[in-house]
Specification:
heterodimer, A: mainly alpha, elongated, B: mainly alpha
């Protein structure tokens, strides 16, 4: 079950209001390769995992991603605090503002609302882990792109932290896949689905 | 490999100084300059990628990640939080820019650093469940974390609900909440 700890995983202390940055950073809140997508993906995939190492890994990474979801929320919140209407207009933040004011809404940078269509939970051990590896790379690239466009070190620092976490998660999911292939017959890893089939096909 | 040994040496020297992973000794060592952060970072980048274990005869049609080896070089909890990983071998920064701000030197930062070490180690242990050295290290960090957390909560209020409700008001709800902007915490 889930318990809340009243602290961020890594501090977010942004001195300068800047809705122009919030406009694209919000994509890591509710976008296709963002932290909510990662969290829901891993926490959903864990149920069909056949081995305890994978149940643990998906639960633990999925939980950490919820903490990252919170960090992005904090970043967007601090970037949009005490905005003047002038700042909102100048930043092109008016279209978000009209629907959400300074509230936090899970959407992509494009404005597409978060949807489970961003994720897959295929119920096949190998497929889900390869999806997860791809997801971590997509998230890492998104953070690369954010870092290209951010000058403020108060913003860049937590973003750099979150980016590095994606690199580590990629390694762990890859190791999870090794744990699977180690247990399967190397003559054909795709003979059956360990998440569903009880009996090995001959 | 030559640089591997230098890096391992640096970190092993640091381990001897730290003793039982008490938070105080880690911080002291970094603050008094006994651990030279620049050297360690430069070594890890000159070294290039850290090698892991690949299967000997892997069939085609599958993808293989090298398993991280046991007893990999390791940062302190504070450095780990600052850099985003406990493992120099996995520190692969954007534009090779590994300069980071130190965030682990505030009262909350010390708690966050120890919690981060636990999260990072637990994730490693999920795929290396038989690494007894790592299990022992996890136990040491867990003890240090509980102590640091209790001390923090005494001054700043509850971090978990079970620590709340000790006075005559429900201080769980008190400001600041983690996303609130405050100048210092």
């Amino acid at each position: 079950m889930f318990e809340y700890e009243k602290k961020l995983q890594y501090p977010v202390k942004i001195k300068r209001t800047n809705p122009a940055l919030a406009k694209f950073i919000i994509t890591q809140y509710g976008g296709p390769d963002g932290e909510l997508a990662a969290s829901i993906r891993y926490l959903s995939q864990r149920y069909s995992m056949p081995y305890p190492e994978l149940k643990g890994l998906l639960t633990d990474i999925g939980t950490e991603e919820l903490g990252h979801f919170e960090m992005i929320g904090a970043i967007v919140h601090q970037l949009t605090r005490d905005m003047s209407i002038e700042e909102i207009k100048k930043a092109g933040f008016d279209t978000y503002f009209v629907d959400h004011t300074a509230g936090i809404y899970p959407q992509a940078a494009s404005g597409t609302p978060w949807t489970a269509a961003f994720i897959q939970s295929k119920g096949d051990t190998i497929t889900d882990l390869v999806e997860d590896m791809a997801a971590e790379q997509k998230a890492r690239t998104t953070y690369d792109n954010i870092l290209r466009m951010v000058d403020d070190p108060d913003v860049a620092d937590p973003i750099k932290f979150l980016r590095e976490r994606e690199v580590v998660h990629f390694q762990r999911f890859g190791e999870g896949l090794r744990l699977v292939t180690d247990r399967l017959d190397s003559r054909n890893f795709y003979a059956f689905n360990p998440s569903f089939d009880r009996v090995q096909t001959r | 490999m030559e640089f591997d040994n230098i890096l391992s040496q640096l970190l092993r020297q640091e381990e001897d100084r730290m003793g039982a992973y008490g938070e105080e000794t880690e911080e002291d060592a970094i603050n008094t300059g006994k651990i030279d952060k620049t050297d360690r970072v430069m070594e890890s980048h000159r070294r290039g990628a850290e090698m892991g274990d690949l299967p000997c005869d892997a069939p085609i049609g599958m993808t293989y990640t090298p398993m991280q080896r046991r007893n990999s070089p390791r940062y302190t909890a504070g450095e780990g939080l600052d850099r985003g990983t406990l493992w120099p071998g996995l520190e692969l920064p954007w534009k090779n820019n590994s300069s980071v701000r130190s965030v682990s030197n505030t009262p909350l930062g010390e708690v966050q650093a120890l919690d981060f070490a636990l999260v990072e180690l637990a994730m490693y242990l999920d795929t290396h469940p038989d690494d007894t050295d790592a299990i022992m290290l996890f136990g040491q960090y867990a003890k240090a974390y509980e102590e640091k957390k209790a001390a923090y909560e005494k001054t700043y209020g509850p971090l978990v609900k079970t620590s709340a409700g000790k006075g005559d008001r429900w201080n769980w709800i008190d400001n600041p909440w983690p996303w609130d902007y405050v100048d210092r915490r």
